């Protein structure tokens, strides 16, 4: 049996052995890792190891050379090729960058991650944009939502931020223009949500839905016709804000035909007026960072047309 031996770096410190192996060999099946462990073919510092063991910086990990061959034989994912114009476009989206964090002002209309119906995504484009590091998504925005989108540029920061989003210690602030005005100027929307098995829409489901909570505040209202809301989701369910505005407040977001129907277009056809305005992020050193994204031009024009001051 031929073995390959690699040394654990600082970025991999604290990671499970199986996750570390899949980081090095992305096409490696979990079942093959577990089978090798049962046969005693996985070793940390020459001692047999289980896939669940946490690795430490400086340790040596030995595994069968066939793992590498398997990865080389697997179909390779096609890398995105960026033009000069693509690179300039991406550069103009950057709000902030340091050694650990990259923040973009995501435009509406582009997917964050690729899928069967997506020809390109920001995730794939950013991996091609930064050739020296691997930008890692730590949260998501819907395709039709604009605003603050964050990537981690190191594994330790990716782990930290992923946990922060999961533990809800990140403060998320959205702006929305809604059709109609909520009865109360501020309050809590708590409606459990689930995916409709008969379509792509999310629905209110009091029996089997997952808890979904959003705080809202009316910043400004235009009579009883429209309102500018600040939304602070405390959970991160798919389409949560769109459903909570349409079903919880009975004020669909402007341009949201999926959940508001014709009531969402009092100004005629218009894009979804939902914008991820800000993120406040706790950092490992005890400090916090806040990032704000200016409104895109089409939303700025609507705010101006309605007389809302968002400067």
Low-confidence stretches: none
Q: How far apart are the first and last residues' alpha carbons, in Å?
A: 67 Å
Instruction: Count every helix, treating DSSP H or I runs of 4 or more residues as helices.
Output: 9
Q: What structural category characterises the helix and strand content?
A: alpha+beta
CATH topology of the largest domain: Pseudouridine synthase
CATH architecture of the largest domain: 2-Layer Sandwich
- H/E order of the elements? EHHEEEHHEEHEEHEEEEEEHHEEH
Rg over C-alpha atoms, rounded to the nearest angstrom: 23 Å
CATH class wording of the largest domain:
Alpha Beta
Q: What is the assigned CATH homologous superfamily of the largest domain?
A: Pseudouridine synthase
Number of structurally distinct domains: 3
What's the total count of β strands? 16
Backbone shape: elongated
